[in-house]
Backbone:
């Protein structure tokens, strides 16, 4: 993928669930290495937006490009995109019937066609990186939520993606486990990974994000650097939202 | 009424000579029925309306009619049809054992396919989405994610159906087969001692059921090994 044009380009994207407009004329460009935090009230379309990027949701209007590839019905293009886009879910979604190691090896073997030994090496490398190599032979249920989410991040990284999508990665975690996950994400950001994070961890947004995007009703309401976003938000809805989540 | 215990001891060994046939009926129609059930289930979840519709019609017919009637139709009805008498499957339909296997297979296949479908529908959607996001195609997701998880979810209900099938094999005695029930019936016809014979027959079925339950519990533990929170594997 060339560096001259944006890694992700969403043009006038619309997505409807029945009569409900989840996304409306949505435009976004993300360049390589950029870290973007997306926030907004429940039902504002944040998750839908991020899920459109690897086509877990099909957009109804507009166009989405990942690198040079446009997301269409074409299966080979879709597979190419999914190889380049890693995703982390709110509810971890580890494969419950496989050990941690096998969770990390499965897609490498099936999708990347990596030989078994190499897949294991890659898996252990990323397990080390998220600091839980000793859990390799356990099943997901035997791990804490924070550990499971770190495994999920490692699993996505094993595919060597160009960009990582995080869909509220800490929302399902007990408070004491949030930091261990954010630490891993911060480490990723420092290494130059392109990231789009839907999150309400404002401390993380402040320290990591290049841009903060505030969404409401399927549209971008405000888009700014963290300094401006938190220091001097322009839009009334942004101010209201920030006052609601930052007072407690 | 007198209850002659010695009769039980003389009848039991004779009835147990039919246990082999009972097992043949159980295992053969169990395995074939499972294969049929997998095909029907795949048709049901294929997303193709005509395959789904066909499978639904099949399931409706075989769940909607008594297994005894199905056995009679296969055994008494099919040989009336010329194309069956002249077809390559005639050796199967000429033989009461073949007819019993066919009827039991067709029947259990209908029930088990719905059990399997329940398992498939029970797989957490998020897990499949994670597979999708990692680039696994539909077939890979089905093979590596849906199948193993659905198998565990479906197993308790499936065990139920295996036990039910064991008891259905007794109906094969109505088409001249000398399985345990068939032998018991002929002993009763000779001795006029229905209580002793049928009660001991019932106990034999219960003992077999006990072992099927144990086997199923063991498979369940093995398939569900990842659901145990404590301890290393």
Residues:
């Amino acid at each position: 993928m060339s560096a001259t044009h944006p890694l992700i380009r969403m043009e006038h994207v619309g997505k409807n669930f029945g009569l409900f407009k989840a996304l409306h004329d949505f435009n976004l460009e993300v360049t390589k290495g950029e870290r973007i935090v997306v926030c907004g009230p429940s039902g504002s379309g944040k998750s839908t937006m991020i899920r459109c990027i690897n086509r877990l949701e099909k957009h109804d209007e507009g166009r989405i490009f990942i690198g040079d590839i446009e997301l269409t019905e074409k299966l080979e293009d879709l597979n190419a995109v999914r190889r380049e886009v890693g995703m982390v879910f709110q509810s971890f979604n580890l494969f419950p019937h496989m050990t941690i190691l096998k969770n990390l090896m499965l897609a490498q073997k099936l999708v990347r066609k990596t030989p078994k030994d190499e897949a294991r090496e890659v898996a252990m490398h990323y397990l080390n990186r998220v600091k839980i190599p000793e859990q390799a032979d356990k099943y997901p249920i035997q791990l804490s939520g924070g550990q499971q989410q770190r495994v999920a991040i490692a699993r996505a990284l094993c595919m060597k993606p160009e960009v990582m999508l995080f869909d509220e990665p800490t929302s399902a975690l007990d408070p004491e486990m949030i930091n261990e996950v954010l630490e891993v994400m911060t480490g990723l950001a420092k290494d130059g990974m392109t990231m789009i994070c839907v999150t309400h961890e404002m401390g993380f947004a402040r320290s990591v994000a290049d841009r903060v995007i505030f969404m409401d009703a399927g549209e971008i309401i405000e888009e700014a650097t963290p300094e401006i976003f938190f220091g001097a938000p322009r839009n009334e809805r942004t101010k209201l939202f920030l006052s609601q989540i930052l007072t407690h | 009424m007198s209850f002659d215990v010695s009769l039980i001891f003389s009848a039991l060994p004779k009835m147990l000579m039919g246990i082999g046939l009972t097992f043949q009926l159980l295992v053969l129609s169990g395995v074939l029925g499972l294969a049929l059930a997998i095909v029907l289930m795949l048709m049901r979840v294929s997303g193709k309306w005509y395959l789904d519709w066909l499978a639904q019609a099949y399931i409706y017919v075989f769940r909607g009619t008594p297994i005894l009637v199905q056995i009679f139709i296969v055994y008494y009805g099919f040989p009336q049809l010329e194309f069956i008498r002249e077809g390559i499957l005639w050796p199967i339909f000429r033989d009461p054992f073949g007819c019993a296997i066919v009827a039991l297979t067709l029947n259990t296949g209908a029930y088990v396919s719905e059990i399997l479908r329940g398992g498939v529908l029970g797989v957490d959607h998020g897990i499949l989405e994670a597979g999708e996001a990692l680039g696994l195609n539909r077939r890979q997701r089905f093979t590596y994610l849906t199948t193993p998880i659905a198998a565990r979810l479906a197993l308790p209900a499936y065990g139920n159906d295996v036990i039910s099938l064991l008891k259905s094999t007794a109906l094969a005695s109505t088409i001249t087969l000398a399985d345990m029930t068939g032998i018991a019936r002929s002993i009763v016809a000779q001795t006029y001692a229905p209580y002793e014979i049928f009660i001991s027959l019932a106990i034999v079925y219960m003992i077999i059921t006990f072992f099927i339950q144990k086997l199923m519990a063991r498979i369940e533990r093995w398939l569900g090994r990842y659901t145990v929170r404590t301890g290393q594997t």
The domain at 29-177 of chain B is CATH 1.10.3720.10 (MetI-like fold).
